[in-house]
Design goal:
The chain is α/β, with parallel strands linked by helices. The chain has one domain. α3 links the parallel β3 and β4. The longest helix has 24 residues.
Length: 205
């Protein structure tokens, strides 16, 4: 289904408000435990695995953060309710509208932080693509990886095992130290370093 179709737009409009109401209701019941430094006083590039979009989005609602969202129908299903949670959407992906999206992200970082899911939009899960690191190099802004553990959750049978926290669950979010990318040459080395660090901290939960 294409978003441009009338049927698609109707589905998105209805889903947007139903999903937002569901998310707000769940958010009220959740207990968030945050460790590490979120770096809220500066512009940074947050990275998190695609499966953790919802728990992280609920923890940082209305915090003036921009998100990169796919312009596909599936991407819009996630993006639409997140806009009602205060997130600014930048349209594009690693394969489509990549250059315009890069320009928009560089502009956004002058005033606010950006959150990216570097294993999205289609995986492989928990494998870091180089787009976020290239953005960090271009912008000279640090990457701040997030590690998430949801105590009780629904987990969907999707490529990323998408997570929706159950009401009254505890959500642990750990912010790793900022990582700067000084040269293009170090990008591939940092990919391995960040993946290993995120996996290590997740196993410590």
């Amino acid at each position: 289904m294409k978003i441009s179709s009338i049927q698609g737009k109707i589905v998105i409009f209805i889903e947007k408000y139903i999903a937002w109401l569901l998310l707000i209701t769940i958010k009220i019941t959740l207990r968030f435990k945050v460790t590490g430094d979120p770096q809220k006083d500066k512009s940074v590039i947050y990275i998190l695995w695609h499966q953790n979009i919802i728990p992280v989005a609920l923890s940082r609602a209305y915090d003036n953060i921009s998100l990169l969202a796919s312009s596909s129908f599936d991407g819009e299903l996630i993006a639409a309710p997140l806009q009602l949670l205060g997130y600014k959407m930048i349209r594009g992906s690693s394969s489509k509208k990549a250059v315009p999206a890069l320009r928009e992200m560089l502009a956004a970082l002058k005033t606010n932080s950006i959150a990216l899911t570097p294993d999205g939009p289609k995986g492989p899960a928990h494998k870091l693509k180089d787009g976020a690191l290239f953005l960090a190099y271009m912008s000279k802004m640090p990457i701040v990886p997030l590690v998430v553990n949801v105590q009780r959750k629904w987990q969907f049978n999707s490529w990323d095992k998408f997570i929706l926290p159950k009401p009254f669950s505890r959500v642990d979010i750990h912010y790793l130290p900022p990582i700067y990318i000084e040269t293009k040459e170090e990008i591939q080395l940092k990919i391995v370093e960040i993946e290993e660090s995120m996996e290590k901290h997740y196993l410590e939960f």
